[in-house]
Write a structure and sequence with these properties.
The protein is mostly helical. The protein is built from four helices and two strands, in the order E-H-E-H-H-H. It has two domains: about 10-60, no CATH class; about 75-125, no CATH class. A two-stranded parallel ribbon has the order 1-2.
Length: about 130
């Protein structure tokens, strides 16, 4: 069930308004001023898709999501062969990545004590008017 924020004066807005979970594909966003309330999982997916098309995009958030650098890298021939081999070729690396993510989040480590301040600093440098609170 979609939840809508209580916005003072929202009843005076006469344009289209909808929740991302019930997207209205009949609304043409090209060149329009668009306001998005919230930066959760849905917004993370659709905001980058609509941003190049809209005239102006206003994004309102209460709490910023966690931001880490994208891990984009070239896929080597070795990895391509593993992916072609199917799930059995990838299961060990997938399990290793999962375990690493889970255990690094719950286990204190020297690496985490170095990377957490760096991630917070990066968030502050990438998001205008965002400072750790």
């Amino acid at each position: 069930v979609p939840r809508y924020p209580e916005l003072h004066g929202a009843e005076r807005f006469s344009g289209p308004a909808f929740h991302s979970s019930t997207w209205d594909y009949s609304v043409d966003l090209d060149g329009k001023n668009v306001a998005v309330v919230g930066t959760g999982a849905s917004a993370i997916q659709f905001v980058p898709q609509i941003a190049p098309r809209v005239g102006k995009l206003y994004l309102f958030q209460r709490t910023p999501p966690w931001i880490v650098p994208r891990l984009d890298f070239a896929i080597t021939d070795k990895w391509k062969r593993r992916f072609r081999a199917g799930p059995s070729g990838n299961i060990s690396s997938g399990a290793r990545n999962f375990a690493s993510s889970v255990f690094s989040a719950i286990r204190p480590s020297a690496r985490k004590s170095r990377t957490l301040p760096a991630a917070i600093s990066r968030a502050g440098s990438k998001i205008p008017n965002c400072a750790p609170r």
